[in-house]
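User: Here's a chain of 208 residues. Predict its fold as tokens.
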Amino acid sequence: MIHPAKYSDALLPIFANLLKDSKLILDPFGGIGKLKQIRLDAIINEIEFEWAKEAGGICGDVLRLPFDDETFDAIVTSPTYGNRLADHHNAKDKSKRITYKHCLGHDLHPHNSGQLQWGEKYQEFHLLAWKECLRVLKPQGKFILNISDHIRNKRIVFVSDWHVHTLVHLGWFPVGWIPIYTPRMKRGANNKSRVGHENIYIFERMFR
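Assistant: Prediction complete.
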């Protein structure tokens, strides 16, 4: 099944290196489970049944993860970016749209952040999601975040900074940053002005 925001291939060898010493790994926004290309034992959590089934994962809600406290040695994930992939109106024309809703073929689950544009609701959702993710991560665990900024109205929306600042506020310290230059989608209103790279941030707890 089509998914509009799979991990870029360039990210996978970096993840593999960062995760080589981690045993139990969770991707809480797992999509169709591309992480399994480097770690077959990774646990994939995905809220949409069709994508969870394709991933061989768990159909679960990131806001209520079905795991005990301090279960995982590492979390690696890529949340939605709050960009135009979140468009979820019922289109009145037949032009091709690449969004979470249009790729899935029906309305998204109410707790799917793939329908949240950048703004207050997006931020409220992800604050709750990160609190829940960090609940299930061991104190010595590693948190790996793949995120990207995007262009809206010809200006950069600094989504990455918000996520980093939020995780720091929750007690996590960024110990590494890796910019990855990847092919970007060349469709939509801002197709000629794309942010050139994605980000990988590595976090550890400030206090264990």
